[in-house]
Amino acid sequence: MIRDITIGQYYPVDSVIHRLDPRVKLLGTLIYIVSLFLFKSFTGYLVALLFLGTVIQLSRVPLKYILRGLKAVIVLLLFTIGFNIFLTPGEVLWQAWIFKITREGLRSGTFMGIRLIFLIVGSSLMTFTTTPNHLTDGLERLLSPFKKLHMPVHEISMMMSIALRFIPILLEETDKIMKAQSARGADFESGGLIKKAKSLVPLLVPLFVSAFRRANDLAMAMEARCYRGGEGRTKMKPLKYKGLDFMAYGAIAVYLAALFVITRYIPL
């Protein structure tokens, strides 16, 4: 299960999507996520699927690697879909005791499941193709207008970057601790829910200790290097838009236009 969590990990490969400016990927991901909630038709989701599939193909990230991250949230997906299917009022198709399935519930649950899958895959694709440093720089540049409101933009971007960096580190640490505890006779698989919860105690305690130790070491290293926030700091490689980035913005605009036209005139 630990190895199935791929969110926050960077997949190093040379591709068109990897070479894009991080601001383009951040804005593109945000626009794509918002667009998923603006329509409720199969044709709209088909357009979203074609756009997402094209981006995945251009990113050169293996589809199996991307879909592997869905295993970690499969319970959330099933719960959300079931919640919509059984609790949406409408034309009843099947009923047993207090549970009933309606035509509107099936449609709503299907749309919600597709929407969540596209949302997770699209968001994960951004972290697969962008390093934490580039994400930090892109987010800081996008939020730079809020500096006039005295918002600590650099500090917020730095915290998000550190959080993203810690995800693969903590996952690797968790895997090592699980293997060490299993070698000592710990069982994380068998038993009921309560037994499994109790078996996590020998795993969580050393994991938290390791996380606090790493956080303390990082804080001491930043202090030793006289880190004082973003005031007066310069960039070794400042972000600059290139022709490829403007082409990407154009592709996003075409996607939105196609989505608007198709969902307006083919409302299926």
Automatic annotation (TrEMBL):
InterPro entries: ABC/ECF_trnsptr_transmembrane (IPR003339), ECF_transporter_component (IPR051611), EcfT (IPR024919). It holds the Pfam family CbiQ. The keyword Cell membrane applies. The keyword Transmembrane applies. It is a multi-pass membrane protein. The chain crosses the membrane at residues 29-53, 65-87, 108-129, 149-171, 246-266. One of its GO terms (cellular component) is plasma membrane. Keywords: Cell membrane, Membrane, Transmembrane, Transmembrane helix, Transport. GO terms for molecular function: transmembrane transporter activity. It is found in: Cell membrane. Forms a stable energy-coupling factor (ECF) transporter complex composed of 2 membrane-embedded substrate-binding proteins (S component), 2 ATP-binding proteins (A component) and 2 transmembrane proteins (T component). Transmembrane (T) component of an energy-coupling factor (ECF) ABC-transporter complex. Unlike classic ABC transporters this ECF transporter provides the energy necessary to transport a number of different substrates. Belongs to the energy-coupling factor EcfT family. This is Energy-coupling factor transporter transmembrane protein EcfT. It comes from Acetivibrio ethanolgignens.
